[in-house]
Amino acid sequence: MTYMQAFEKIKSKLEGKAKISDKYSDFAIQVELTNKDCSGIFYIKYADEFLDIQPYDYVDNTASISLSYTSFSKLVDGRITTDEAVSKGLMNVSGNSDVVSALYSIVPEDKTAKTKKSVSTKKASAKSNTKPVSGKSEVKKATTEAESQKTVKSDKAKVTAKTLPKTAEKNTTKTKA
How far, in Å, are 136, 141, 165 from residue 128 at the CA level? Predict the structure, then answer.
């Protein structure tokens, strides 16, 4: 992926959709992507409840961060906090590090809720998959019982068939006498 492809993905994901806490009235964060294939700089500016994302160097920034595309995606999706990213060495921060916290979970809750919902749906479907399996074993058990009843019936038929000729012989013998 090239830098512009990465930037366009980020911009389309965040632009016009981000929810920023009231704690942050305005800020400008310069972001440096450090990937070999998509390294580059862009900025995220938040002012007057409007989020602006542009592929330029922003000299008068409140803070600047340096991280990989994957780490940035995890940060804005809420899968990793700014503190975790810094402590794990995934992100370097310079300037007002408190403002960088505004990026954490910047994607609206409805998107993260959908992600959680799809995960819970997958778990629920996995649980529902176990029910048919037990149902199948019950069907197998019932089939086995039915087969055993057929076997018992066929065994009775065999016994009856074996005893019939003897009974017939006795009846014929009695009739002759």
Answer: 13, 20, 56
pTM for the model: 0.59
Q: Phi and psi at residue 18, in whole multiples of 5°?
A: -75, 145
Q: Is the dihedral of CA 62, 66, 69, 72 positive or negative?
A: negative
Picking from 62, 64, 44, the residue whose alpha carbon sits closest to that of residue 53 is: 44
* Dist. CA 35–CA 90, nearest whole Å: 12
Classify 89 as helix, strand or coil.
Answer: coil
Distance CA 28, CA 38 (A): 22
* 3-107: CATH number: 3.30.1050.10
**pLDDT tens per residue across span 55-113:** 999 888 999 999 999 999 999 888 999 999 999 999 999 999 889 988 886 765 544 44
Summarised one tens digit per residue, pLDDT across range 29-56 is: 999 999 999 899 999 998 887 888 999 9
Domain coordinates of the chain in residue numbers? 3-107
